[in-house]
Amino acid sequence: MKPFNIGILKATVDNLLTNRALLRSKYANLELDDEEEDDECINCSQDIDWKFIANVRKNIEDNIDNPALTVDVLCNLMGMSRTSFYNKLRALTDQAPGDYIRLIRLKRSVKLLKEGTHSITEIAEMTGFSDAKYFREVFKKHFNVSPSQYGKEGKPHKEGSKAGKENKSDKEGGEKEE
Q: Across the chain, which distance is largest between two alpha carbons, in Å?
């Protein structure tokens, strides 16, 4: 046995754990604005883990409107077994594949809500949720606010508009006369 310094060993282990946590947060914290992410991560294209996450994300985004996109379908698209896909994605993002798919769908729905050009039902269908009620439930659970409320708060360019307020209340079934 070679002698070693306990302080150096502890620092090395601590650095490894810290770096793994940073990688998990980076891979799990997705932004759908690809241009910004590419700028800040120039050397990441060489990283095999980054390529894997980018490929998973691309496959999900290409099929985002498909309600039949399941973990099994994604595994087939990736050419991996379900177990190895689960283990790799879980290690990189600290999320199960089903949760990861749902997260990407929810982030796309946020983007669509901010645009303000679609109804909640249309957004649910465009992001692969076959049931608008389930979409509302999942959205509220994740963001702690309903999609319609998020749409109202997330669209500052329409808040001052009288027509925008009337249209939103009509979509929700409320009656608003001014």
A: 84
Do 3 and 9 touch, CB atoms closer than 8 A?
no
Task: State yes or no: pLDDT of 34 exceeds 50.
Answer: no
Question: What letter represents residue 69's amino acid?
Answer: L
Q: What are the tens digits of pLDDT across the range 36-72?
A: 444 345 444 447 888 888 899 999 999 999 999 999 9
Please give the full DSSP string across 49-79, using - where no structure is assigned.
Answer: HHHHHHHHHHHHHHTTT-TT--HHHHHHHHT
In this prediction the pTM is 0.66
Tens digit of pLDDT for each residue in 109-122?
Answer: 999 998 888 889 99
Tell me if 137 sits within 8 A of 89, measured CB to CB. Answer: no
